[in-house]
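Support request, please re-run this one:
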Amino acid sequence: MSFPPGGSLAARMKRYSSRWLGTLLLLTVVYVAAGKLGLRFAFENPSASPIWPPTGIAIAALLVLGLDIWPAVLLGAFVVNATTAGNLFTAVGIASGNTLEAVVAAALVRRFADRPDPFARPRGVLIFAAIAAGVAAPLSAIVGVTTLAASGFVRWSEFGGVCLTWWVGDMAGALIVAPLLILWVQGGRIEWNPRRLFEALILLVAVVATGGLVFGGWVPMSRKGETFAYLAAPVPLWAALRFGPRETATAVAALALTALHGTLRGFGPFAQFAPVTAMVLLQGFISSISVIGLILAAAIAQQRRSEAEARRLNEELAARVVASTRELQAASVELSGSSERYRTLMDSAPDVLLVADADGKILLANARVEEVFGYGRDELIGRSLAGVIPQGLHGRRRDGSEFPVDVRLSTVKLATGRGVCAAVRDVSEQRKSEQALRESQAALEETQRQLAQSQKIEAVGRLAGGIAHDFNNLLGVILGFGELARKDLPPDHRAHQRVEQIQKAAERAATLTRQLLAFSRKQLLQPRVVDLNTIARDMERMLQRLIGEDIRLATSLTPDLWPVRADPAQMEQVILNLAVNGRDAMPGGGTLTIKTSQADLDAAFVSAHPGSSPGPHAVLAVSDTGHGMDATTLSHLFEPFFTTKPAGQGTGLGLAMIYGIVKQSGGYISAESGVGQGTTFTVYLPRVEAKRADPPRPPEPASPPRGTETVLLVEDEASLRGVMRETLQGAGYHVLESGTAEEALTVATGHAGAIHLLLTDVVMPGASGEKLESQLRGTRPGVRVVYMSGYTDEAISRHGVLEPGRHFLQKPFAAEVLLREVRRALDVR
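Re-run finished. Output below.
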């Protein structure tokens, strides 16, 4: 039983409880009334009746209403037995047995019989009878009689007889009353007509008359033998044949009441026996005609349903046959004029259609064959299908040329037997489109790969740019104080070498920082118009010493190479790193080639090499004859920290730095390699409109220059400011220092003498170095300026300090570099 729908949960539970209680009370009253009626027939023991209607009522109620109504059975059975005989113990024991009987029967029938009507098929009737008679009824009898014997109401010597009477009484109640109630509750509405009503009245008269003749004592023969009772069996069988299970159950119940009433009065074929035997025979008779009648009724009802379904299917089939016949007639009319339409349909097909017989000889072709194959349709008649489409892989035109085709074959029925229809489509354009699509997909994958690499480089670049300023300041302090300490120590002092190692470690850290900024394209470049040929020639001697004697260095430099704009020091670094990579790839010796050329990159090149730009470019190529690389290694070549060298022999930043320098210079770099075929790196730098390269800087003096001028030093990092102050003072300069732009203006105002040079950090708390210069020139217009910063190119460019003519120092820098740049700025005229 489920909650009724609608309303809140509390309201639904309340309605459910009210309905359940009402049903339970009603079933209890019905059970008690039926029990009192059944006990009126008790003859051997006050609690053992020859037919026990409450058993059938309880099983039917639990099957129809649900198992949760079992408390009504328990309460009704307790009331019946408590008000009949015995004591409270016997009433509870018998009630428990009756309840257990009903619950077990209902649960097993629900599990194994047909639902919701177990009497719809013979199998369901047999299962119900077996469970009710063979399982549930014995269970109630054993529990009930055991309770009576334990209470002293039945002697243990009488246990078998009383138990048998109890069992068959419950069995009769289950097999007669339960089917009657279930079939009338779940049965549909009765459709009466005069003929059926008349036959039902005759059946009623037959039941009464048969019961009176056999069990009513109307004729003296009724006591001649127990088999005489089965003269009444045709009546329920008649109900089964002419009506149905419901009417059969009704006829059996009426006949059972007549037989029970007559036998108890001493009439009928069973009255001649002892009471217990008479009741057992009577109950067996009633149960057998009930089961046989219900099985026969279920079988006939099932047959009627099958016949009705067969009639429905026959009617549906007949209707379909009629409809199909009409369709065939219409198709026959249509077919008479379809030949021309068929030819028109074939000619309008987008594919070539060829019909051939079982031997492969072409019988029919449509008009498309002339356009695709070059044959007239009549020319192909009688030719072999295999000669036109060999092996179904390609088509062969009349001129002998072949082209890709898509062939679909289907079987057709011909007058001479089965044949084949070939639909042939020229897929030349499709194959071209597929090839173009594959190429586009490959280009897209390459673009996605390069985008992923670019995003990776950008992420690391942001990290490098974020820490570059503070890290460069720290390195500047280490380098500066290390150099000052080294100068103060004699060369033979044991701490002298330790300070040198500290300086070397700091220089390597500074190099690593520059590499990080290089591949992320955030390092500070000082581009000039340069000639790549000049850079390559100037590096030849140094490169030969670097790569060793077992590797031959070859150069092929194009005369009058287009100039490019790049930082010459960084381009030297590019050539140097590529040469070192080539040397490491040739451990057994080989040839390293440096080649320059010119190329005008077109749209096709740019499309095939994402990241490049069209236009004239100067080209620098560095090739080696080493062991080469596979495709997987090539795909990761420019990624930061990727290296194929053993641990401790490379940082994985060399090629990434080259990539960053080239991209920051507006160029493009590519690599071509194969296992055992060597490697070629090609750098493309855009041509600049200039007649010649910028002149090289004059050589630096051998020793750091000195001076006596006044320098205003502005640096917010106190430690680094101390290093630079000592360095400048050690070179003879007079130094005024401050930590902020505001403090520097105050110091300048309070200084009566001249200030020859402003040495300032670019980015500081408060005002920037550029703003400080502007304010200082208001009072000291002739002051020279040298900027310095540990920030990246992007940050410095926003302050405009990289404009031509300005002096700039990238942190960290050595003392000699500081002194030379200060002297250079002071000496400019």
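Residues 275-335 form the longest helix (61 residues). The chain is about 55% helix and 15% strand.
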